[in-house]
Design goal:
It is built from 14 helices and 18 strands. It is of the alpha+beta class and about 450 residues long. The protein has 2 domains: about 280 residues, 3-Layer(aba) Sandwich (Aminopeptidase); about 130 residues, Alpha-Beta Plaits, CATH 3.30.70.360. The strands form 4 sheets. Strands 1, 2, 3, 6, 7, 8, 15, 16 and 17 form a 9-stranded mixed beta sheet that branches. The protein has a 4-stranded antiparallel beta sheet with strand order 11-13-9-14, covered by helices on one side. Helix 1 crosses helix 3, helix 3 crosses helix 14 and helix 12 packs across helix 14. It is globular, with a radius of gyration of 23 Å. Bound molecules: ligand BES and zinc ion. The site of zinc ion (ZN) has 5 residues, from loops.
Length: about 450
């Protein structure tokens, strides 16, 4: 029973593994859009069947939203739970894609071969790295090196509304010695990384209503209050001139970066200019006394993710709209309380309304930041195993994104979570032309084989 035999098997099976991933990527499992409900169900069925083909006891488990997939297989050694999500982000704007997002292909690019399609990197490709590692292990050894529970979610990209109740109701079944999550990236696209800090996320949609119906701006403009004008003023006031967020109490619970972490992060040698340069920028727009790495990993933010109002079609229309709305998100760190911030934000907005205007709020999920403890022995074992696979050694890093389940493992089940992923900064997750490097997929599968070997 040698690791080398498993790694060789992975190498030999890569074309077939790629075909399987492409098959899964064809299913348009967009969780946030009810029009794709059947596709989410189909993706869950696909995963159940694939796990079952490995001899894993797997089933689709209903929730009020999209189903979960849970699978179990026995083995010696520790009990490991693996988490990934099968849902994907919407594809719009579709016209910016070079191909159909759900007709995935292998493509040769200047930087190597990539698997192109929605969900290739976030998160179907990453989820399948672990499944493929298990497949190779099973093919070579007939069994797996430890007891494994598979846990796949279909609502991660839409705020995981069913996750906490499901984990609470199935706590015994989902409790393990360690949880592995594959939904993050490599550090600077080259070093393997174990993420120890994730930011939380709070989503708010606000709609300002002025006049009771759309009006001719020649007849009513200047007299009637325009809700776009009100909305713009509120949005413009969210940040001060130094990039700080002005909502009262917003910074409550934001810790100062410890000298130790600050030192460790400096040692990572992050390429700040390159990070901005890769997306056509040169000047950081956040809090002016912070480095870009600090802004992303350790500071909270507020971003407007979309604005709607008035006439946005071709040509021109002199309309004074009745309503204007915006989708606004906050990334949270430390002990910031998403519920308190939601209340404070709503009160702050309501206090700025002029006469005759009203506001309505729609909340979109609220998760606090989470910090992973790294004292479980699996962390050092995994770090060594990853360093054996990649040219650079593995680092402990932060992450600007949010993965709500990471904190739930500890809070609900008492299990530590270890976040390891192989995405690259240029994977264009959530954007047009998402891709996953074939290298990420291949070395990702090999990495999991090594990690399983090391922690078993
Ligand atoms: N895989 C991402 C998290 C991520 C983002 C990891 C960037 C590494 C780099 C995850 O699927 C995601 O996008 N999460 C959402 C959160 C959700 C509540 C909508 C996010 O961070 O916006
Ligand atoms: Zn993801």
């Amino acid at each position: 029973m040698s690791l080398d035999a498993v790694l060789s098997r992975i190498d030999a099976d890569l074309p077939a593994a790629t075909d399987r991933l492409i098959d899964l990527l064809r299913i348009p499992s967009i969780s946030t859009d009810p029009a794709y409900k059947a596709a989410c169900d189909q993706a869950a069925d696909w995963l159940v069947a694939d796990l079952q083909s490995l001899g894993i006891q797997a089933s689709k488990r209903p929730t009020p939203g999209h189903p979960m997939v849970v699978g179990h297989i026995d083995g010696p050694g520790p009990h490991v739970l693996f988490y990934g999500h099968y849902d994907v982000q919407p594809v719009d704007p579709l016209e910016l894609w070079d191909r159909d997002p759900f007709d995935p292909r292998l493509e040769d690019t200047a930087k190597g071969r990539v698997i192109r399609g929605r969900g290739a990197s976030d998160d179907k490709g990453q989820l399948m790295t672990f499944v493929e590692a298990c497949r190779a292990w099973k093919a070579v050894n007939g069994t797996l090196p430890c007891r494994i529970t598979f846990f796949f979610e279909g609502e991660e990209e839409s705020g995981s509304p069913s996750l906490v109740p499901f984990m609470e109701q199935n706590a015994a079944e989902l409790t393990s010695d360690i949880a592995l999550i594959c939904d993050t990236g490599l550090f600077q696209s080259q070093s393997p990384a174990i993420v120890t800090m994730l930011r939380g996320l709070l989503g708010e949609e606000i709609t300002i209503t002025g006049p009771g119906k759309d009006l001719h701006s020649g007849m009513y403009g200047g007299v009637a209050m325009n809700p776009i004008r009100v909305l713009s003023r509120i949005i413009a006031g969210l940040h001060d001139d130094n990039g700080r967020i002005t909502v009262p109490g917003f910074y409550d619970g934001v810790p100062e970066l410890s000298a130790e972490l600050s030192e460790q992060w400096r040692g990572l040698g992050f390429d700040h200019a390159g990070f901005l340069g890769d997306v056509g920028l040169s000047v950081p727009a956040g809090e002016q006394d912070r480095t870009p790495l600090e802004m992303i990993w350790s500071r909270p933010t507020c971003e407007v993710n979309g604005i709607k109002g008035g006439y946005t079609g071709e040509g021109f229309k002199t309309v004074l709209p009745s309503k204007a709305s915006a989708k606004i998100s906050f990334r949270l760190v430390g002990q910031q309380d998403p519920h308190k911030i939601r209340e404070s934000f709503r009160a702050w907005v309501a206090a700025q309304l002029p006469a005759d205007c009203s506001v309505s709020f729609h909340g979109h999920g609220a998760s606090a930041a989470s910090t992973m403890a790294t004292d479980h022995p699996a962390f050092e074992a995994a770090r060594k195993a990853l360093s054996d696979e990649w040219p650079a050694s593995a680092a402990y890093v932060g992450c600007g994104g949010s993965i709500p389940i990471a904190g739930h493992f500890k809070q609900i089940l008492g299990t530590d979570a270890m976040l390891i992923g192989f995405g690259k900064d240029d994977d264009q997750i959530h954007s047009p032309n998402e891709k996953y490097d074939l290298e990420s997929f291949h070395k990702g599968i090999r990495s999991w084989a090594r990690v399983l070997d090391a922690i078993s």
